[in-house]
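haha ok so turns out i had the wrong file open the whole time. this is the CORRECT one, sorry everyone. sequence first:
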Amino acid sequence: MESEIILSFTKIMISKKFLGNDLLIVVEGGDRPHIGTAVLAVPRPSLTGDGTISTTASVLNVTGHKDEVICRILAEKASKKYGVTAVCIGGFHIDNMETGQIKEIVSAIQNFDI
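then structure:
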């Protein structure tokens, strides 16, 4: 399943595929899509003991890449929502992004219904 997030200056493509009970998420966008990070999120009972579900995430970043923010949000949201192990890989790059553009990306990803 593929989705598109339209931003004021570009778009982000997000695809997801269930592999058995696990979920693979691929993110690409900007001027040069790439693999800049891989985030693995595993659901677990919250440490608060209140019965809610949280996640534990592990991250592999390519040196100098900042794609973890996007992939961590998506992997953790998916892991909690579906109660599965989720991996998010990919990358988003635009040269000389402005602070407002970065905030727009993070907000769009946080509001995206995975």
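The chain has one domain: 2-111.
again sry for the mixup
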